[in-house]
Design brief:
mainly beta, Beta-galactosidase, Chain A, domain 5, 2 helices, 6-stranded antiparallel β-sheet, 9-stranded antiparallel β-sheet
Length: about 300
């Protein structure tokens, strides 16, 4: 592989893809994290100026990769545990392990990069399956396409439901002026025992200061789609793409009312899906499944 294009950012040599006006900065060795996405000179994602690079998985910014499962899991009330198809209980951190582990770069060119995580000692205890997980970022003239691709390299079927955790840059003072548009979807929250709570009929548009959005899963009941409209830009999520696994929900979250970011997160499944089945995917030995989304940016 040729010498990687890098750029120093906060004292870190990040991998750069793109041109002078639109580019990505990524940290493959820190969970494959997308740290910056600049589109036509403007930062799309939030990244804190005082990021703690000794614990990058905990940094509120960029786009952490959530794999093999998203969210919290519970066994008999114990958080961080899940039971496999044989009844064996395993320990797995919230949102899985991908955001804590180094990825390899398996392909790169002027406009795209593929980062790869393979099963190993750091994955087997919490997830005893053989896999290859690829995250593919490809710049588009008007946005970004991201593919989460899982290949089962083992001899038994594996469960998974990956997702994204996009931290979009938005001053907290502008939340009342921003909105989220959704295809038909029900609002769902996770109960203390891990199960999904009762579904409430959702709306087609919400202001981002609506408290009903906090830590809420918007479970699609029709073709999945979302639009984040902010004062500076609009981001349209294309989630119903040919050849892609179904996106089960979009989750909305922010750390506090004073946070200068807002998270809109496409998820293949719901937290604890290994137990209740909502969005759970099974991949057979030798098979590959991809979850693809496109983010189109307009002024």
């Amino acid at each position: 592989m040729p010498l990687l294009p890098t750029q120093d950012f906060q004292g870190q040599p990040l991998v750069r893809v793109g041109d002078a006006d639109s580019f990505l900065l990524l940290a493959p060795r820190h969970g494959g994290r997308l740290v910056r996405w600049v589109h036509r000179g403007q930062d799309i994602l939030h990244w804190p100026g005082n990021a703690d690079w000794s614990r990058p998985a905990k940094v509120r910014g960029g786009n952490p990769l959530l794999f093999p499962f998203i969210g919290r899991h519970f066994v008999e009330g114990n958080a961080g545990q899940w039971r496999d198809e044989s009844g064996v209980v395993h320990t797995l951190a919230q949102h899985g392990f991908a955001r804590d582990l180094p990825f390899d770069i398996s392909a790169i060119d002027a406009q795209a990069i593929t980062m790869t995580l393979r099963e190993g000692d750091a994955t087997r205890a919490g997830y005893p399956y053989a896999f290859v997980f690829d995250a593919v970022y490809a710049l588009l003239p008007d946005g970004l396409e991201v593919t989460l691709r899982t290949t089962n390299t083992g001899e038994r079927r594996l469960p998974c439901y990956p997702g994204h955790h996009f931290y979009f840059a938005l001053p907290h003072t502008q939340r009342a002026s921003a909105s989220l548009g959704l295809a038909r979807a029900d609002r769902v929250r996770q109960l203390p025992d891990g199960k999904p709570g009762p579904a409430e009929a959702g709306e087609t548009t919400y202001r981002l200061d609506d408290p009903r959005l906090q830590d809420t899963f918007h479970v699609f009941t029709d073709g999945p789609a979302a639009t984040l409209a902010m004062p500076a830009r609009t981001i349209a999520f294309e989630l119903d793409l040919p050849g892609s696994a179904s996106w089960h929900a979009v989750t909305t979250w922010s750390e506090s009312e004073a946070s200068d970011f807002y998270c809109v997160e496409p998820w293949v499944g719901l937290p604890d899906a290994i137990h209740h089945g909502h969005g759970l995917r099974w991949i057979e030995p030798g098979q590959t499944e991809s979850a693809v989304c496109r983010l189109r940016v307009s002024a």
